[in-house]
Design a protein that fits this description.
heterodimer, A: alpha/beta, five-stranded parallel beta sheet, 8 strands, rod-shaped, B: alpha/beta, three-stranded antiparallel beta sheet, 9 strands, 46% helix, elongated
Chain lengths: 486, 492
Amino acid sequence: MVSARFDDAARDGATPTFRQLWVAETVRLRESQWGPCADSAEVRDARHRGAGFAERLLLRAAALGEREGITAQIRQWAAVARLSLLLLAMGAVVGGALAAQAILGAPGSQVNLLMALTGLLGLHVITLLIWLVTLVLPSHDAHASLGELWLWLTRKLARGPMAGLVLRGLLGLLGRRGALAPALACISHGAWLLALGTMAVTLTGLLSARRYTFHWETTLLAPETVQTLTATLGWLPRQLGFAVPPDAIVRISDGLHRLPDTAHAQWSGWLIGCVVLYGVLPRALVWLGSAIVTRRRLAHLQLETGLPGFAELRDRLAPQAQSEGIDAPAPDALTPSTPAYASGKAPQAAAAFLGIEIPPDASWPPAGLAEAHDLGVVDTRAQRVQALNRLQATPPQRLLLVCDADQTPDRGTLMLIRELATLAAQTGVVALAAQGAGAVSRQATWVRFLTDGGLAPGQIFTDASAAGAWLQTQTAPGSGASHHTP
Amino acid sequence: MNASKASTPLRLAVVGHTNTGKTSLLRTLTRNPHFGEVYDSPGTTRHVEGARLRIDDHTAVELYDTPGMEDSMALLDYIDQLTEGGERLDGPDQIARFLDSPESQGRFEQEARVLRALMACDAGLYVIDTRDPVLAKHKDELVLLARCGHPLMPVLNFTHRPRQRLDEWRDAMARLGLHATVEFDTVAPALDGETQLYDKLSVLLDRHADLLQKLRDNGVEQRRQRRRDASRLIAELVVDIAAWRSISPTDTDAVEAATRFLRNTVREREHMCVQALLKRYNFDRTTFPAHQLPLQGERWEMDLFNPHALRQMGIQVTKGMAAGAMAGATVDALTAGISLGAATLLGAAAGGIWQGADKWGRRLVSRLKGFHEITVDDHVLRLLIVRQLALLDALERRGHAAQAPILLATDEPDSAAVPGPQDTDHTPVTDTAPDFRSAPLPDEVLAARAHPAWSALANDYTPSQRREQAVNALARVLEHAPAPPKTTLLSS
């Protein structure tokens, strides 16, 4: 049972690599923008080497990509992308470290706990919430800001005539499979993860090497609120082993009391715990989630052969029919001589007409010829032989052969006409078109055919009345008046 | 299934009287408009030309186009002359003797080629121009061809012309013992014409029935694939145009200029789609000349934006639609923009800081400053869909032997339309089938209207999974849409 899947995806031995698909997509975009590439050599090669439409598409795209410099551009772009990823990572690390340092302030300073926490985690929490909201909103694709930044940076750094096309190819490839948003999210969360991680590490380092004091202040909120807040935030770190200040210490940390030494260490623990558990951990989780989704969406990649730039190539790359060529060239046509009266006898009858292969449902005899002698219609072999014998016995002065202009003239008819022409002193042929709508008149073909077959223009008629007039004319041999009506 | 049988291709010779459409048949079966030469004159094909039909890169069938038989009566006489003297040779031996004789390179050179080709093949397709009367020479031809010893299947061509003599030919074939005939008009074959041909052949040649079955299934699958690809092309066109918008300041001249720009862009995009459809169906670009972009001025009659064009296609035009320079475009100042703006505002607020300022900020700012957004009217979208479906229908029914250009005629009373072929397999239009001229536009089109970034014509085009899903869904709708009614095609 023949498989009915003609996009051949299942038939390919190897799954296409991401790079191959990227090249194919970029070539497709280029052809859709600037017209088809001259590709006969590549198509021939692809048809020879590849089995199946998808594989041949990839081969053709690879060859064209090499030729047009697209592959080189993609290589360069990929290198630039890696570079800008590196720059982003470095920026994140540096940013995290600097943020930690800036928020803690000069060594020995008083650190306002709530301000520090907001400063360290505020931006992170806001952007994470925004991302989560866009994830859930149905009408809008999720956008990850740092991922977009990476894209922007790459676009700025990549140079070359086809950089834009390459980028569009990548975006198309990822976007159609729904892998673009997760991929950008992955990059974005990864950068944040680095920043927060560095932040946590820097915090730990700074808090280990320098002396800081912690306090909380509030004007608007009630002190109990702040205590509850800090206690709630500290609950999770306490469960996971961070040293978190107990309630008593929290209460007296309003900056107006002197705190024991351990309190500051506990507050450091609280701060670092919050950064790790509310910063690093959520980001790590969403980063992991995005990475898994991206990987899943990009697994088992196949070429989409139904896309506009690919579908039209189906007939070129996997043709269903192919010409084979001819057996031998046709021989040259010889120009035959004009048939002349061959019989030795003098013509006896005056004028006669004969129908050749007239359809049985046509009117016979045709109008305008009634006065002459009607020899009937010739179709079968027996009728031919009979007509030839009669004409041999009593050759007429003028013989008019009536043909049906709707039919195509052929060599057999021509041979018959030539043979009949040798049995009369003068022969004319009229190609009568049938009347009525829808008739396919091939009169011009008949005229050309008969002329090529050796008849003189004066012998060929297309009109029954002109032919009838010729038939009735009593002339001496040799003065053939021409009645050819075009 | 016997593997060795499957690998031997079936060889068919396409034979018949001169100028009956043998080369046309091959053009249509191989879907190659340039196979051989086709002119209306006797004996145009003077050689035997081969073509291969493939399934999955294996040759399934080899078809051979032959010159016409022109002088069969005299040839029969000659063969009788060669074999007189009391010998009783059977058919193929008689033909073999003729092929060894001097006249096979002389007077009967053309017929010798035909007979040699048929002797080397497994069967013959005898093509008949049903407009010709049944004459003695045709019967003699069949006698000659039958002497080759291979099955012959008559193919009745030109069956949709007014003066065809179909019944006479069927009678004549029956009297000669050829009862399995197939109707196949090479210029406008029925949608399942090829299928019928292979089905009947498989009855005649039951040794090759498996292969013919595969060929038939292949043909059906290819047709479906073409339709799928074509629906996808049209869906992309519709989404691109529905989502496209052009922004202009509020003064009249600017709006008119922007509308003109919009219309030209839309026309060019439609033109691209038409070219892609023609290419997918393997027709020349010149097949649909009415759709060639005018170099100067506007081809107003076929123009998308002409209200008359809409009426011709049966699409109701409301009174409020703008005419003249503004025809076909909706100028959206404040009204419709609000509903779109609300969703995009929310998106803007949620979407990230500079992203929002970049995309929607511009639109918000332009709306606040009083810019106008110009989009394509619903009516024009309908006309687009209806026209493309009509073109698709015409392409599906057109044989590659047809030479006249495609004209999508309308139901005007004075258009001299030739009635199209009767399709017995065409599913009738049911009440549930969408008539795009009046039914509400599909959801995917409405979704596209709300997402300007879905249009490939836009500068900020971003391919997304949702767009992909919408395009695929719309393509499925179009794939199963019936042909627009009241559209007859003129192709001779």
